[in-house]
Design goal:
Elements: H1 12-31, H2 35-48, E1 52-53, H3 54-59, E2 69-74, E3 78-83, E4 94-99, E5 104-115, E6 118-126, E7 139-146, E8 152-157, E9 167-168, H4 184-187, E10 195-198, H5 209-222, E11 232-238, E12 243-245, E13 251-254, H6 257-272, E14 280-285, H7 302-313, H8 319-328, E15 330-334, E16 337-338, E17 360-363, E18 367-368, H9 379-391, E19 396-398, E20 408-409, H10 413-417, E21 422-427, E22 429-431, E23 438-441, H11 442-458
Parallel strand pairs: 1-2, 4-14, 4-15, 15-21, 16-22, 17-19
Antiparallel strand pairs: 2-3, 3-14, 5-6, 5-11, 6-10, 7-8, 7-11, 9-10, 12-13, 13-23, 17-21, 18-20, 22-23
Helix pairs in contact: 1-11, 6-11
């Protein structure tokens, strides 16, 4: 079943709308390179759109009613937005769920050392990466350092033109004969992904003079000492802004599009819809890339707890009502899919691959090798989704993540499906997925937002 390229049917007005959306998306990527930064952006956007902080409503013992808009933040790294619809919560809600963490390098708790007259920061990679892709690349540091007195110091180095950048060093090709005989998984070992941090020695210091020079600089500029690394969350990401890709500027090249492309379109759709029959929720969570674990991952009770609080503020909470609400809900697990790449055709089943420019991608199931670990949406739900997309003239396609025995992957879909709700994965097709720089089609971004809005209104 050949799907039409979305670019073929756009009017000039639609192209203008597409470019406006993608311009805001690039700005979102530039400012939101960590989950904390994405939450900060989301809070500002939500409050500008009339959303109120749920914790303040609870503290002031206020009530909620149809039409009210609230948001809840958990540990500064996950956020849920709710817009109260006309129908009873017990009859279910409509959820857009994406993740805002991306593969990266995390700085360890005891990271700073000197060797050979150079200072390095020791790292531990986060999520699934090809380690060799992270060498000899301009890198930036984003995050926070929390001192023992509770002061939180925000750190962003490497994004402004006047900032220094960092890198993981690589062996020159002239001496790399032995290295190049290794498997790709072994060319660069995880413990070799340390970033070059400085080289200027502190005058008068005999031992570890470069390290001491850096510690003095950290003290002078940030008020930090070496022990403060123990309570820091510092993420190493590619330095630089999102850019248009291709001579026709039809695509976007940027870090972190898995899964911030779906997080942005979910948030934007949520902020644009109004007068809903069913209560809508936009859920942006952390830790998906490492199994959705921890207090800020989808496996935590954050979402369930916030839904219970909303029901309580509406005077309809009971444990049974909450369970009925969850079981009657429907969700789009807003996550990316692998775009067909002609350079690696052997990895794809061309009949069941996602193609750039052909619209939002629905993955009936994910998982790997025999659908292991997947949520497999039922035919009835897929039929309903098709009806909604076609009614709203959304360009869409279906796909699998590569050939059956090649590999696979997972999302947060199966976790929400444990409540008994209808769930299907859908989002934007991505080239270079999990690489430092990923590529997406502007048309797919535009169609994905349209699809998310259609779901919230009509599901």
């Amino acid at each position: 079943m050949e799907r039409q390229n979305a670019w073929d049917v756009y009017s000039d007005e639609e192209v203008m709308q597409l470019e406006e959306l993608c311009g805001r998306y690039r700005a979102f990527l530039d400012e939101g390179k960590t989950e904390r930064e994405c939450v900060d952006i989301s809070v500002r956007a939500a409050e500008a759109a009339g959303y109120r902080n749920l914790s303040e409503i609870i503290k002031e013992n206020k009530t909620l009613k149809t039409g009210d808009k609230v948001y809840a933040v958990w540990m500064k790294k996950s956020i849920a937005l709710f817009q109260i619809g006309e129908e009873p919560l017990e009859e279910g809600i409509r959820i857009l769920g994406a993740h805002i963490d991306s593969p990266r390098l995390d700085i360890k708790q005891n990271p700073l050392y000197e060797d050979g007259g150079l200072a390095f920061l020791d790292t531990h990679y986060y999520g699934g990466i090809k380690k060799y892709q992270w060498v000899a690349l301009p890198l930036a540091i984003h995050g926070v350092v929390v001192k023992t007195d509770g002061e939180s110091v925000k750190v962003t180095i490497g994004e402004q033109e006047e900032d220094p950048v960092f890198c993981v060093t690589d062996l020159l090709v002239h001496l790399a004969g032995e290295q190049m005989e290794k498997k790709a998984s072994k060319v660069i070992e995880g413990e070799a992904l340390d970033i070059l941090f400085g080289s200027r020695p502190l005058k008068g210091q005999e031992k570890d003079a470069v390290k001491h020079g850096i510690l003095r600089l950290l003290q002078e500029k940030y008020g930090l000492k070496e022990e403060d690394f123990m309570s820091a969350e510092l993420e190493v990401v590619p330095a630089g802004k999102a850019r248009d890709l291709g001579i026709d500027s039809s695509m976007i090249l940027a870090y972190g599009q898995d899964d911030r492309v779906c997080a942005f379109t979910s948030l934007d759709a949520m902020l644009d819809v109004s007068e809903l029959k069913k209560t809508a929720c936009c859920l942006l969570v952390d830790k998906e890339e490492i199994g959705s674990v921890g207090a800020t991952g989808m496996r935590s009770r954050f979402f369930e707890n916030m839904l219970a609080e909303i029901m309580n503020c509406m005077g309809v909470y009971s444990e049974l009502a909450l369970r009925r609400c969850l079981a009657s809900s429907k969700m789009l697990s807003s996550d990316v899919s692998a775009a067909f790449d002609p350079a690696y055709v052997s990895a794809f089943d061309k009949k069941n691959a996602a193609y750039c420019g052909k619209g939002i991608v629905f993955n009936k199931f994910t998982g790997s090798r025999g659908k292991s670990g997947s949520n497999d949406a039922n035919a009835e739900y897929m039929g309903e989704i098709r009806r909604i997309m076609e009614k709203n003239k959304v360009a869409y396609q279906t796909a699998e993540l590569g050939k059956v025995d090649i590999g696979g992957g997972g999302t947060i879909a199966y976790i929400l499906s444990l409540y008994g709700m209808e769930v299907v994965d859908c989002g934007v097709a991505v080239l270079n997925m999990h690489a430092p720089w990923e590529a997406t089609s502007k048309a797919d971004i535009y169609e994905t937002k349209k699809g998310y809005m259609a779901f919230l209104k009509d599901a």
